[in-house]
């Protein structure tokens, strides 16, 4: 560890897939809390998230030389390796053996579609849909990862449900957001409210049902509707800021970063929460739960009660401040790192 005036600073490497800006946000929080966090990101998307903490040299290393780079550069440099979304440094995961041989602690953090098997999902959520309909592959992948990685992080109890049977130790760290980047606006009632839906995956998000509901309700109400797709994050956020009501998803049964961002902006959010997850979330969660069968009814109620939007928005902002602030949650993450290192060192 690098020495400072107050002692050694823990150095962690995160990778290798940026999920909803979580690698960047947690790295920023870890730095604020006194650690050093760098990122390797092998999968870039159109969302255009910041890459301030990314190790640029990694992309310049030829595939045949990456094993040597890990051995000679990364292993000596970092105290702990924190991987995300079932990825590691190399596509064949041979780096895991390198890290274990070097006695470096390894953590895997799971986020959703890489562990959400359809059969298991339907046991706790009858509206469930999955991106990867291959339960055997998911199970084999988790078994392999857990054989090589004893520690796992889950953002909520849905992910915990899928990963708990495999890993020796599972910790909770909720998703993180830098609230200073999201100024809330509690909009008053308008003659033409703006409803926004931003599906990264229309099938999973239930976009078909949302579009049907919008068309049905146009005969009863005056409003504008905007579908946000294939747009970088900063451009999309400008639209979210103008929205009066945001619709997230109707199938997953849990909320993710889009709903968190919308609540941080002070917007009422429609997002399906399963009974299973409702039993675990704080009672103060102000999301309006709707599934494909209830969306029209819920939308109609909200459009008839637009005076409630500012209060719902304030409760959403308060909820995110309490549960998803990146400084608080990166401090939790740092404590987990420190406990693992202490345990590994005996």
Plain-language structure description:
The chain is α/β, with parallel strands linked by helices. It folds into two domains: 195 residues, Glycogen Phosphorylase B (Rossmann fold, 3-Layer(aba) Sandwich); 145 residues, Glycogen Phosphorylase B (Rossmann fold), CATH 3.40.50. The chain has 15 helices and twelve strands. It has a six-stranded parallel sheet, with helices on both faces. The protein has a four-stranded parallel sheet with strand order 10-9-11-12, with helices on both faces. Helix 1 links the parallel strand 3 and strand 4. Helix 1 crosses helix 15. It is globular. The protein starts with a strand and ends with a helix. The N terminus is likely disordered. This is Glycosyltransferase involved in cell wall biosynthesis. InterPro entries: Glyco_trans_1 (IPR001296), Glycosyltransferase_grp1 (IPR050194). It comes from Siminovitchia thermophila.
